[in-house]
Amino acid sequence: MYLMQNLRSILIDSLVLGSGGVPAAGWELLYDAGGDTGAFVLGNEDGDFYVCFSPDQPYAAKVSIAATFEGVDAAGLIVGEAARSGNSASMSSPVFFSSMYFPNGYSSSNTYRGGWSMLADGNSVAFVWSASSSAFAPGSGLDSAANNIQRYGGGFGFGKTTTGVGVFCGASSSVSSYFHAHPSEGIQRFNHPNGLLIPAAEATSSVTAGHRAVYSMESNSSGEIDYISEDLPMFPMEVYAQGAGSVPGGSLGRLRGFVQLPHLRTDRFPRQILQSLGMAEDFGSMRLQDLSALRLGSDGNRYAYGKLSGGHTSYAQMFLTDNPAVW
Predict the structure, then answer these.
(1) What DSSP string describes 263-320?
(2) How far apart are CA 76 and CA 90, in angstroms?
(3) Beta-carbon neighbour count of residue 13 at 10 Å?
(4) Does residue 12 sit in helix, strand or coil?
(5) DSSP class of residue 147?
(6) Could you give the count of Cα atoms lying within 13 Å of 291 in the half-sphere of its Cβ?
(7) Terminus-to-terminus CA distance in the chain, angstroms?
(8) Per-residue pLDDT reduced to its tens digit, 171-207
(9) How far apart are CA 30 and CA 226, in angstroms?
(10) What is the pTM of this model?
(11) Which of 54, 34, 59 has the alpha carbon at shortest distance from 42?
């Protein structure tokens, strides 16, 4: 259950306890069972959003959310008002967070490498990571078309959108060791656009967010970038829901902490992408785990790249940021 261990050590230490000289973000640990690999529940500062992570496989955790917390059932899913995991009624088809190499491998082997960045306040959390099954040489050695350099990484988040809707973004409907989490995919929510809670016994309507990439990679081909992309537009990820019965559809707000660059091609090495954005001062020595570090952009805000290969999602390149426009 290495994924659960990694999730626990990062989320609990950072959000609840504080770590590395950074104070806690204001979240509370409400439930903690089974030691390093057991289920746990986090609650937000306002007391109206709760998320449960429970073990499923060594590289997968079931995710469920609710507006109140009343416990965890035998299946490892949260019990509470408007409890939700998946779009089906009564959580009959739960969703997962799964990745074999989150964020630095699923075994004790020292060949696994991973890096991550997270931004959070008392009500919202946004996270990106980059990982691989091999270390890969720094500098030009990182520009490899090998399958593993393309495969692992992404971003996910949970808490409130900019309009106060409770969501988990970056979930998967199935377990996959190669899963790429993208915030525009796998969005779970327990509010209608008008803010009303959705009863757990009701299915939720479809949602859409983010932007499709202008160019999606069909294979692992890559190449150098010989142009500067610093002025390419960045877009927030706004979530829209279809209407459900008597409740009209509409915006669920923006996913906090994320932007996308749909005009940034996906068929390029990740290190080259950062260079084209002017965010790679350590370009000559950069390693895979350095890809997702927070870097200062030309606008004075920080950005961290959530490494994704275009062959695994049709959505655009994605970055974590402290830009106030998405907080």
Answers:
(1) TS-SSS-HHHHHHHTT--TTTTT--GGGTTS-EE-TTS-EEEE----GGG-SBPEEEE
(2) 14
(3) 14
(4) helix
(5) H
(6) 34
(7) 33
(8) 887 776 556 688 998 999 999 999 999 999 999 988 9
(9) 51
(10) 0.91
(11) 54
